[in-house]
Amino acid sequence: MGVEKDFQKFEYFQNRELSWLQFNHRVLSEARDKNNLLFERLKFLAITASNLDEFVMVRVASLKDMVHADYTGRDIAGMTAEEQLEKIGHGMHGLVDVQYSTWNRSLLPLLKKEKIEFISCHEQLDDSQGAFVDEYFEASIYPVVTPMAVDPSRPFPLIRNKTLNIAALLKKKKGAEKKGELEFATVQVPAVLPRIVELPKGKDGERFVILLEEIIERNMSRLFLNYEIVCAHPYRIMRNADLSIDEEEAEDLLKEIERQLKRRQWGEVIRLEVEESIDKRLLKILKKEFAIKDDVIFFINGPLDLTFLMKIYGTEGFDHLKQKPWKPQIVPEFANEEGVFANIRKGDIFLHHPYESFDPVVDFVKQAASDPQVLAIKQTLYRVSGHSPIVAALARAAENGKQVTVLVELKARFDEENNILWAKRLEQAGCHVIYGLLGLKTHCKICLVVRKEEDGIRRYVHMATGNYNDSTAKLYTDTGIMTCDRAIGEDASAVFNMLSGYSEPLSWNKLSMAPLWLKNRFVSLIRREVKCVSQGYEGRIIAKMNSLCDPVIMEELYKASAAGVKIDLIVRGICCLKTGLPGVSENITVRSIVGAFLEHSRIFYFGNGGNYEIYMGSADWMPRNLDRRVELLFPVEVKENKEQALHILETELADNVRSHILQTDGAYEKPDKRGKVLVDSQAVFAQEAIQAARDIKEKKGQLVSGRTFIPRERPEE
């Protein structure tokens, strides 16, 4: 017998954080793509800035904590926390350089061509514009802004996480005491005011905009009347925002999270952004006060915090520079007046958002809230919208006397405050609110409605890959199933009994749950494909997810590839697996799709010797999902639904417009499109949804009208 191959070598894996930086570069490539409309490019650039902020506050902060704790363990790629920080530091600086190169060299000139003049420095204002912004300062900014001087009686103030500030060096005017000595002051740019200020239009219809901080900087002397402004420059900090909660010691989890949210403003400074031309004396003071080293200082050649570009995207009058807003189409199974429950009784219903409307999911809860035959509603909430119709319906259901149980995940990162508010509102309405299991985040998306019918109690279940968020359902691609299958209904009841108490079922009918059973389920499904190959059948796996970095799953995929199983992975973000390794991953392909919608669905196909199976769920192949979260995997069983799920996977594998292919050297490249039919998977799904809606209208004898969601034709590259 030969020696068994080692599939766990460091060189077989990519570092998670470096893989994430590659992903953000893929998003940035959409901002650089000349085939995209100008305002879409602005939006993609804003997204990269927002992504990087969260990455610094959470991932970089976590590595910093490891270094402070003298943790010397190595990651899957063999790197210590200190080595990772050094490499991702270089990577982040490189990413920021490309961001601002894109802004300065590509997008700013194009905006000017479209008669949108971006005044990047207040010295560029002409006399009439200067008078306008000065008046705006007096009327709208001066009453709000607070200048903060620093001296022996006034210590350095708390600079809040992610806020934009202006630092200044001041010198007392002649005749004042201590004249000639430089003093430090800082001003927070008020977040309650619009950061983009539009000036009067030019003679030829040009639209001029200036940023709020430039107006404040121009009028700094109004804030410090007895001082001469030596210099003033904007700056911004990122703090460690990774909450550290000891759930076993916390008597009340809700109160503990509220307390930790306040502490987030005092977290260690992880990054400092300053204007490229900042005065060295000013920078020295900031470095000292924030106790930081040079490697975490980012010198910015342009406006700090590019997320403001999302506001420019919302500027009216430039529809020709934006993709037409997509209107989700009707779900064919609900194109009647029969009601949600009657339609689900006809058979399992497959949902594909945002191409199809999220309304049936909202209606599912709304109708349950008012239906006198409904006895109970049980639901998990991870992230919901600001004015959630689902939360309102759950509250109404409790007020109507129904048994309502809601698991609100308080530990959903950066949604903690929002979820605390919802939890309190639901409790006030009479809902039984639970906060999940000790030490675990509840990430599964499931809603159970128990209804009394003529033939007895029937359970209706909605399960999905995405959150119960009516806003993001228009932006994220997700899939779901509505069913009244008896076995799944029993499993759904078992899920909620586990979440609300200590009841653990002896066995499951069709669902698989993390952290107890799901990883083993995936491992057994992968190994079954290896067995198929050994028996002379084709071994085939197609898996679509957000991220892939679980060591056990990746090792199993390597073993399957080495055994001859053909594996195609569609991974939007992090992927620590490498392709094309001789004898290891030669049968594995990885592609990432970045488009108008954020790819969020998780779909898993296993060939099973020709009798293929498809599953969907809330979990990515990551340790946090499989080991530290409550997740669900559910089967797609109805023939038509299986075919629809497979069609999604096959269309995305054929995508040569929005996809980026992982190369053997670890880089991602767009596929060669020369001489090939262009396939944009998101446009395909949109057109199919439109056609389905047209077919429904034709059947009803209505006038046919639809909207086209096909991007401008792209040249063959």
Please outline what is shown here.
It contains 19 helices and 27 strands. With 717 residues, the protein is of the alpha/beta class.
Q: Care to describe what's here?
A:
The chain has about 725 residues and is α/β, with parallel strands linked by helices. It has four domains: about 1-120 and about 310-320, Methane Monooxygenase Hydroxylase, Chain G, domain 1 (Up-down Bundle); about 145-195 and about 210-300, Polyphosphate kinase middle domain (polyphosphate kinase like, 2-Layer Sandwich); about 330-510, Endonuclease, Chain A; about 515-680, 2-Layer Sandwich (Endonuclease, Chain A), CATH 3.30.870. Helix content is about 35%, strand content about 20%. The strands form four sheets. Strands 14, 18, 19, 20, 21, 23, 24, 25, 26 and 27 form a ten-stranded mixed sheet that branches. Strands 10, 11, 12, 13, 15, 16, 17 and 22 form an eight-stranded mixed sheet that branches. The longest helix is centred in the first third of the chain and has 33 residues, at about 80-115. It is globular, with a radius of gyration of 28 Å. About 40% of the residues are buried. Residues about 705-715 have low confidence and may be disordered.
